[in-house]
Amino acid sequence: MDDRRTAGRRAGDGRAGRDGQPVPPATVGRLPGYLRALEATASDGAVLTSSEELAARAGVTPAQLRKDLSFLGSYGRRGVGYDVGHLREQITVVLGLADVRRVLLVGVGNLGHALANYAGIAERGFVLVGLVDTDPSVVGTTVAGLEVEHADDLRTVVHRTGATIAVLTTPAAVAQRVCDELVAAGVVGILTFAPRALRVPAHVDVRAVDVASELQILAFHDRARSVGGGAS
Ligand SMILES: NC(=O)c1ccc[n+]([C@@H]2O[C@H](COP(=O)([O-])OP(=O)(O)OC[C@H]3O[C@@H](n4cnc5c(N)ncnc54)[C@H](O)[C@@H]3O)[C@@H](O)[C@H]2O)c1
Prior knowledge:
The chain is an alpha/beta fold.
């Protein structure tokens, strides 16, 4: 049986929440939003928050929020609400952010440059530990404080840096080959921007970001509204 799967499969399948119980992928997908909302609440100086307030900040309904948090074993206290610090810690642990994750970026072109310099990566508990490219005019240059290394040394770079997650910003034509090399080197999570599906072994998670597809979905909803189809 083929143990490989495509990027269409969601990361977070069956991940452990309360008492090791699985957290549904849709809930996992909303947890970063809850964490952001909690961080905003904490920076306002609040120690406690209600499901209504937190849901409003996260853009979901209070019922959805309560259901999602119940998978983490967090129910809040009636009349008191949620302890902001405790809930932040719980979500951080479930998302696997309690330990700093080392990230390698492959393909230091336009997008790679922008992402390497994106401060939000470090602010969310990740550390960019390496940059890799094949272009001789890029290799050896310094981007975001790191020297770009040659893709021929990919495996060595992964081992030296201890990267477990890779951001893939190469052209689509080489993305599968680079992905295979990353997996062979021991990377277990890949965030790809290349516009093609990637096949990975079952133990590896792939998340795909595709701005053009998202725009197409918006176009679909726009068209559906204009023809009165009422898509939602
Ligand atoms: N998902 C999105 O929303 C989105 C948005 C923009 C671009 N993209 C995609 O992201 C990728 C990068 O786009 P870009 O505009 O930065 O392109 P770019 O050409 O500026 O950068 C690509 C970089 O990858 C390097 N590269 C090529 N082969 C490599 C290999 N085998 N190993 C390591 N590096 C290699 C190139 O030398 C180059 O520096 C493309 O696949 C593009 O289609 C996706």
